[in-house]
Design goal:
Blueprint: H1 8-14, E1 20-22, H2 31-43, E2 60-62, H3 85-88, H4 107-117, H5 123-130, E3 150-153, H6 156-174, E4 187-191, E5 193-197, E6 202-203, H7 206-215, E7 221-223, E8 227-228, E9 232-236, E10 240-243, E11 258-266, E12 273-277, E13 280-286, E14 290-297, E15 304-307, E16 310-321, E17 327-338, E18 341-343, E19 346-348, H8 349-352, E20 360-362
Parallel strand pairs: 1-2, 3-19, 3-20, 4-13
Antiparallel strand pairs: 4-9, 5-6, 5-17, 7-8, 7-16, 10-11, 10-18, 11-14, 12-13, 14-15, 16-17
Length: 371
């Protein structure tokens, strides 16, 4: 879609094309149908017919869930709300799929969701859902929450809060505040290595680097415009994780692939230190000390893969502390080396769309359309 320099080889490749199919279009903005129209007209060499050519004069089949959350971009709107000619005027057929297979194990809840989707839910539906509010009279308690539950949150700040709370609880159960007690080996913090500021690769001062590592979460650090980066990855055996980036698509792993952390293989010269988190002593290493990480696919029990650290150019949202009581937010350009992994005890609603879960804990309420 983003190829603005289509060559003769591209044209020959698309010459036998008779239909173009695009799925998950509901997760994109109005630029998607615009780019498809532009590039198909070029690839099918139909641009000479001014104002008449549409999508290279071949059928285009769009697939997607128009009841999803709006695209996760600034000012993102559903396609049918964008006043886009390539969508509004080119469409000549609409087929709605009404299957409800995801709720075959819980048809009652599935029917409630259908009524909510159609905006004709009943007071009985509201009452029924309220019986599932944790802590409500007659509802489930915190002790009823299963260990493998998936947490759904409306935004990345709440995702960070839940992930941090899980790690804090884990440390309370497994670690000590006594520096003389060796921290267990099943838990590790992997800090980013080779952190440099700006294009000139200027080193951060020790105090500034310490401040960055202790205050910046993954939602504060971004590679390009898409991928969050955790400069201090906190892992323990079988902690839920999520891959970022599309560096291994050929191997079946892409941005958003879910997995479990299994092990770290350290380099022979690795130096393992300890650092304090919430008063507890935890083992830690730098990304340069790690040869690779071993993870297990969440949907393929027993199947593992390895991940290696990579160099990244990032933007860091950071609040600089000046004199007591004074601070200001700023954005820093930096380079670093870290693993393309995020902790995933909690997941945003956007990432959970289309996933099948045995149990779900929804935290927080959002006014976002279709939430």
């Amino acid at each position: 879609l983003n190829n603005a320099s289509i060559n003769d080889d591209n044209v020959r490749t698309y010459l036998p094309t008779r239909m173009f199919i695009a799925d998950e279009v509901s997760m994109g903005g109005k630029d998607i149908p615009q780019k498809v129209n532009r590039n198909l007209n070029t690839l099918k060499e139909t641009t000479s017919v001014a104002g008449q050519a549409r999508n290279g004069n071949i059928p285009v089949l769009w697939g997607g869930d128009m009841g999803q959350l709006p695209p996760p971009c600034k000012g993102g709107k559903m396609l049918y709300m964008t006043n886009t000619p390539e969508w509004d005027d080119f469409m000549n057929c609409f087929v709605e799929l009404k299957g409800n297979h995801r709720f075959k194990a819980d048809p009652e809840y599935g029917q409630i969701m259908v009524r909510y989707h159609d905006r004709n839910h009943t007071r009985a539906d509201v009452t029924r859902l309220n019986t599932r509010v944790v802590g409500a009279p007659g509802g489930p308690t915190v002790r009823d929450i299963p260990d493998d539950i998936a947490y759904c949150v409306p935004n990345n700040k709440q995702r960070r809060a839940v992930n941090n709370a899980h790690f804090s609880k884990w440390l309370q159960q497994t670690h000590s505040t006594n520096p003389d007690v060796p921290p267990p080996k099943h838990t590790l913090i992997i800090n980013a290595s080779d952190i440099r500021q700006g294009k000139k690769s200027k080193e951060f001062s020790p105090s500034m680097l310490c401040n960055l590592m202790s205050t910046c979460a993954d939602c504060d650090v971004k590679e390009g415009d898409r991928y969050f980066v955790d400069i201090s990855i906190k892992v323990y055996t079988r902690r839920p994780m999520m891959l970022i980036g599309n560096d291994c698509v050929e191997e079946g792993r892409a941005n958003g692939t879910l997995c479990f952390f299994l092990a770290v293989v350290l380099k022979p010269e690795a130096v393992v230190k300890t650092q304090q988190v919430d008063g507890y002593y935890v083992r830690c290493v730098g990304a340069n000390d790690v040869q690779h990480i071993v993870c297990e696919y969440a949907d393929k029990p027993g199947q593992t893969f390895i991940i290696k650290a990579k160099s990244m150019s990032v933007k860091i949202k950071w609040t600089a502390q000046l004199e007591e009581g004074f601070s200001f937010p700023t954005t820093l350009s930096a380079t670093l080396k870290q693993f393309p992994l995020l902790t995933n005890n909690a997941t945003t609603g956007h990432k959970l769309q289309g996933a099948s879960k045995t149990s779900l804990f929804i935290i927080g309420v959002s006014n976002t359309m279709n939430w």
